[in-house]
Structures are given as C-alpha cells and as structure tokens.
Amino acid sequence: MKQLITALLLYFAIISSGHSATWVQLNNQNTEKLMLDKQSVLQKDNLKRAWIKIEYKTPQVNPETIDKTYNLTKLLWHFDCASQKVATSQVFQYLDDELVYSAGIEAKTAEFIEPVPESHIDIAMRYICKADKPAVAAKPTSPEAEKVKASSAKPEATEKKSETPAETVAEKTAEPVAKAATKPDNAKTKDSNHKTPWSYKGKDGPENWGKLSTEFATCAAGRNQSPINIDKTTHASLKPLKSIQRFPARDIANDGHSVSVNFKEGNMLVLDSAAYQMKQLNFHSPSEHTIHGKIFPLEAQFLHSDSKGNLTIIAVMYTEGKANLGLAKLWGQITKEVTEPVVLKNRVTPNELIPDNQSYYRLSGSLTNPPCTEGVRWLVMKTPMTASKEQIKALNEVITSDNNRPLQALNGRIIVE
C-alpha cells in the first residue's frame, strides 16, 4: 500500500508540475500504438528516464485485476544505455481515462533487464539511446593549424584512390566495425597485413584470442559473445523477414580461416526499420551454433551491414543429405591454397543457399572470430538446408582443421523465436 501511495504521489506531482507532454509515436501496429513523451526525457547519473504510453485498440486484462480491463497504459521506464537494459518503476492502467490500476517502486530498487527484441521496451530503448554515441568535440585550432590541416587533406585523398580492387564493397561503405567484420581473417590482403595472426587451434587458438592483441580483448572480456547453444527461448511475435536475395555472388576466396564469398550490391534485409545490405558469406565446419545441443556438419553465415556499420548475420545450418546446387557451383572454384578473391564463373544467388521457410531464432551476439565485436544481431534459421557428404568433405579438405569457435556463455541473454 505504501508503494502504491508513493507511486500515485509521484505521478500526480509530475503531471501537475507544469510540463506539457509532447507525445511522439514510436510504433503503430494493428493491436496497439506505442508513444513516448519527449518532454519527460531526463538524464540522471548514467540513466535516462521517460514516460511511455501504450494505447490498445481492444480492452486488455491485467492478471492481478481480472475483474477490470484497460485500454491505456502509462509507464515510467529507466534506460541504462551503456548496458542496453531497462527497468520499470511506475505503471498506470486506464479504461477510457479512468484509472483502474497502478503500481510502483523506487527506481533504485527496480530490476534492469535486457529487452526482448522488437518488444515495446526494446523499441523505446533504441529511440532513447540512439543519440548516446558520444561525439568527439573538435579542438580549437589556430589559423596556422587550419592551413596545415587543409594542406594535408589532399595527399590523403590521393592515397585513398590507390585502394586495391580486392577491397570489398563493405570496406568502402561501412564504418570501421563493419570493415573488420567483412574481412575478418584474410591475412593476404593489404588491409590486414598489420593484424595479429590467430587461428582455431594451438597457441593462437580461441582460448587465447583475447591475449593476442588489445584489439581482440573483447574475445575474452565480452559478455555477449557468439556462438551459443540455442535451447531455452522466449516466444514473441517476430516479424517475417523482408529480404531480397536474388543478386549473384561476385567472387570467392580461401582466406586461410574460411571459404568466403563476396556479393554484388542489391541483396537487402530490412530489420528494425533499417536496411541492411548483404556483404559476405562465410562457411564453418562443423557448425558454430548448436540447436538444442545438436551440432551440424556445416553452417553458412551471411553478413549484412547497414549504412551506419551495424551488423546482422543470418546463420543457416546444413545437414548431410541431398547435394546443394548453389554449393556445387561455389565449390567448383575453391582451392586448397590461400588466394585473393577469384571472380565466379557461375551465377550463384543467396536464395539457393537459404531455406524457403525463414522462421528463425533471434538474439544479440558478436562476431565469432577476432576482434569478436559485440552488438551483432543474429538470425539463426530454424530450417536447415542439405549438403551432400562429398560437398561437406570438399570443404573440410580446403579448410584442413575445424573452423568453429567453441560455444560461449549465454550470460542472461534472451533468445526469441
């Protein structure tokens, strides 16, 4: 009762404080509308807080008050943008403007959780935290320094034009994190000559990646690392994937760690209201992810990047069975020697390598090889494809040792299906 009184006093104090709400729509679905009061957004210490309201188009039932229904909820949410977690401290439910239920606790005792992807709280967090990337303030410079800066710009531009044709589209368009992901392990390219050597076994193997270089520190210190075993999941209304998968692959290479395939521009994935372009495909044998403990002989990972360098990877498992036509066309041009990318002679499109049934698991993770960058959205297809025994053997003969990173701890992450 004391908590309820505290919640009500806080609420009425807020609405009587003179601030005029400015509601912005964050999401509008067939069943409800999600809105945020921009005037209520405040930051204290390392947290942001804001009032949210959800307007329902049909009455809802609260399990704690089954005799009453509501069609509007107002909530006070607290956002920890650094850890990507959110807590609720106040809840008010209304039926046609009449308050029918309320509850609240002190913000400092509220439980912070990782939002379920695509949930209301996840959408609100992305909106609130999107401006949290700190901008680097420009240092005041003297006129002389500005002249030096201007004179040095020209040579840099000239040097940029001398990039080798081996660079992928991703390297030219994406931000540094995407660049590291699209060419993670090709020791033969100019851009990776400075990188610390790593491997899947021995002293440079996965258990030591975090010690090899400060650039790889996340491999050991990260809390949201991939791959994982997909087992316990949370059911949610995941939206069907919207994608274009008909533009062909451009070239193929044995980069020493994997067989990688680069794609021409045009293959797109729409996720979280952002457009991701398919950049590269890498193969791992055996699979890096497991599903309910099951290991697959082959896993294909399609890396996508948006214009800001955010990454999404579609993972497809392969079981032994009927030969795959797309793999057959790719395998015809792979070699046992580490090579620069070779232009493909045959037309191979992503839809030959991705199942028609695109139901999926979704989770947050990382790159599965150094630098193990986190913040990667993983979409793991539930339906496997097939590859023949000969096709699986052919890959294993090219990549002479297993190239799957060991499973990583879930650390409280939520897997949604």
Summarize the helices and strands and which ones pair or pack.
Layout: H1 2-15, E1 23-28, E2 32-37, E3 42-44, E4 47-62, E5 65-80, E6 85-95, E7 98-104, H2 120-129, H3 143-160, H4 169-173, H5 176-182, H6 209-212, H7 218-221, E8 229-230, E9 242-244, E10 249-254, E11 259-263, E12 268-271, E13 274-284, E14 290-291, E15 298-305, E16 311-320, H8 325-331, E17 342-343, E18 360-366, E19 374-381, E20 385-387, H9 389-398
Parallel strand pairs: 8-14, 16-19, 16-20
Antiparallel strand pairs: 1-2, 2-4, 3-4, 4-5, 5-6, 6-7, 9-12, 10-11, 10-17, 11-13, 12-13, 13-15, 15-16, 18-19
Strand content: 25-35%
Helix content range: 10-25%
**Which radius of gyration do the C-alpha atoms yield?**
25 Å
Total number of helical segments? Answer: 9
Estimated structural class: alpha+beta
> What is the domain total for the residues?
2
Strand elements, count = 20
- CATH level-four homologous superfamily name of the largest domain: Alpha carbonic anhydrase
Distance between the termini: 38 Å
